[in-house]
Amino acid sequence: MQDKPKRDQTRKRSGGQISSVQVMFAAILSIGLILAINFSTRITNGQPLQEAYKLVSTEIGQLKVDQATLTAQRDYVLSDAYVEQWAHDDGKMLRNGETLVIPVPSGADVNAIPISPVNLNAVQTVPVQAPSWVLWWQLFFDSPPPKVP
What we know:
It is elongated, with a radius of gyration of 45 Å. The protein has 149 residues and is an all-alpha fold. 0% of the residues are buried. It has helices at residues 3-16, 20-77, 80-89, 132-140. The protein contains 4 helices and no strands.
């Protein structure tokens, strides 16, 4: 008969009151749920930042490649080899012992084109420095620029 009163006491406790173990379990469960939601929100917010970081990283890599290419091109342009190549190809300047050949179209009369030998060593050029406003005036108007006192 003693077993019956113990069962009644345990039923009374569990039915009406919450034990401290249940309170601790509920607290731990709620803290865990809050942390899980917080971490999930941080991960969701971080994904666009990761994509932007990858995009910027690839752009930085491409810009470094472009910088290396431009630096190599700058070094070549500053060299004597580039100046000699430009003078020979684009500047149409001759080295000693070379002859300038000008191609003539097939339908043109060769005797009608006057060709006179030019001594490039005798040609001297002096750059003319005109004010910039004079150059602009000549671009927009057919008349000479006005005289400035």
